[in-house]
Backbone:
């Protein structure tokens, strides 16, 4: 590893003794944390400052910009998820609307169960399933996520699915049993391994 350590800015590695290890360790850490990325950081700062000295504004008001430049996300709550979605209802008074209301009731119960940690599913997993992102972006999504519905065909059972491109979650109409809804959502979220798998 001598050549690698020398490339980290420690040319005296070949003549070092065991007593020099703490100093060499500190030099390697300094290289990886600061020197290795210094040119990239300077390029980033120069790029930001090319837009009306934006980096200078960020540096002076760093507390306000902290959520934008750091991952300061908190654990998602039921209200976060509820506020993220709009429901695509069928016309009032239709049979579809009545079935959709039954499904949405089960959806609300399911969200409450996640909030109370009664199951092995998190809101972050749900968000990944619907959007592909594990946290809400600092500036939000380009549009609200949509809750849409489909009909179950006789003799078959389609599990809920999503379109991460359109930020849409599709749920089956007319699910009246809590256990059935939980089973379907568990299969949908835990049974998928990701894109193309």
Residues:
């Amino acid at each position: 590893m001598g050549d690698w350590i020398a490339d980290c800015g420690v040319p005296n590695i070949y003549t070092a003794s065991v007593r020099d290890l703490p100093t060499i360790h500190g030099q390697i850490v300094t290289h990886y944390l600061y020197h290795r990325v210094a040119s990239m950081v300077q390029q980033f700062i120069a790029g930001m400052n090319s837009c009306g000295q934006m980096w200078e504004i960020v540096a002076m008001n760093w507390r306000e910009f902290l959520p934008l430049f750091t991952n300061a996300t908190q654990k998602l709550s039921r209200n976060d998820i509820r506020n993220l979605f709009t429901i695509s209802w069928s016309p009032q008074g239709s049979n579809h609307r009545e079935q959709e209301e039954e499904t949405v009731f089960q959806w609300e119960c399911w969200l409450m169960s996640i909030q109370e940690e009664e199951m092995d599913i998190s809101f972050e997993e749900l968000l990944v399933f619907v959007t592909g992102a594990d946290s809400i972006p600092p500036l939000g999504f380009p549009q609200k996520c949509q809750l849409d519905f489909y009909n179950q065909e006789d003799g078959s059972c389609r599990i809920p699915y999503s379109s991460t491109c359109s930020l849409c979650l599709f749920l089956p109409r007319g699910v009246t049993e809590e256990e059935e809804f939980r089973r379907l959502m568990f299969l949908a979220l835990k049974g998928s391994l990701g894109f193309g798998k």
User: Anything to note?
Assistant: The chain has a mean pLDDT of 89. The two ends are 39 Å apart (CA to CA). The first helix runs from residue 2 to 7.
